[in-house]
Amino acid sequence: MWTRKELKDRAKVTLKANYWKAVLVSLILSFLTGGSGSSAGNSASNSYQSASGGDNFFSGMDASVLATIISVVIVAVLAAVAISFVLSLLVFNPLIVGCRRFFIKCREEQPSIKEVVFAFSHSYGNVIKTMFLQGLYIFLWSLLFIIPGIIKAYEYLMIPYILAENPEMDTKEVFARSKQMMTGDKWNAFVLQLSFLGWVLLSVLTCGILIIFYVGPYSELTYAELYAVLKQKVNGSDSTVVY
C-alpha cells in the first residue's frame, strides 16, 4: 500500500536530479492543460464595459448590417472553436502524453526534453484516438451529472501515462488497464491531488512564481510516482482485465 509521503519524498529526490528540465516541461504541460485561468475574469470585465456603452450604437444601426455583424461574429467564434479542437486533438494531446513520458523517465534517468514530442513519432494515430476518446467519455459522463464525470475522470487518470510507455497499446486495453489501476485508489488519488492545495494557495501569494519553479514539477513527478506504484500493483495482480 502506498502513502502520499512516500510518493512525495521520491518526487523530491527526482526533482533535484532533473530540476530545470522538469520546470520547463511542467510549464509546457501547464499551458497545454490550461493551468492558468486569470485572463478569463479580465476578458469578462472588458466585454461588460464595452457592451454597457454600446446600446446607442446598435439602436441606430440598420437591421441587415446588424445581422451581418452577428453572422460574422458567430462564424468567427465557431472557427475559433474548431481550430482549438483540432489543435487539442492533433497537437496538445500528443504533447501531454510526451510530457507524462518525460516525468516517468525522470524516475530512473535524466531524460531529454525531446521526450515531449515522443508521441508524434510513435503510434501517433493511436495516441490521438485514445486521448480523444478519454475526453469524450468524461464529457458524456459529465452530462449525466457532475459526480459520474468526476469518477470517470479518475478512472481514466492513468491513460496518458499508459500511452507514454505503450503508445501502440489497443485503445480498449488502455482504458481497461487504467480502470484496473485506479480500482480502489480513486479516493486516494483525489486526496493526493488535494494535498497540493496548500501549495497552490501559497503560490498565489508569489504571483504564480512558486508554482512554476517548484509546485508544478513537484506535483507532476509525484503523479508519475503514483503511476509507477499503480502499475506495479496491476503487474503483480493475477486478476483478469475485463475489456
Name its key features.
243 residues, mainly alpha, globular, disordered C terminus
Q: Would you mind describing this structure in some detail?
A:
It is globular, with a radius of gyration of 21 Å. It has twelve helices and no strands. The model is unreliable at 36-54 and 238-243 (pLDDT under 50). With 243 residues, it is an all-alpha fold. Helix 2 (19-32) crosses helix 12. The two termini are 25 Å apart.
Brief overview:
The chain is mainly α. It contains twelve helices and no strands.
Q: What value does the average pLDDT take?
A: 86
- Note the gap between the termini: 25 Å
Number-wise, the strands total: 0
Our count of helices gives: 12
Q: Could you tell me the radius of gyration in angstroms?
A: 21 Å
Structural class: mainly alpha
* Biggest pleated-sheet summary: none
Low-pLDDT sequence parts:
36-54, 238-243
**General form:** globular
Beta-strand fraction estimate: under 5%
SSE run: HHHHHHHHHHHH
Helix content: over 70%
Layout of SSEs?
Blueprint: H1 4-17, H2 19-32, H3 38-52, H4 55-59, H5 63-105, H6 124-144, H7 146-155, H8 159-165, H9 171-182, H10 186-194, H11 197-205, H12 209-235
Helix pairs in contact: 1-12, 2-5, 2-12, 5-6, 5-8, 6-7, 9-12, 11-12
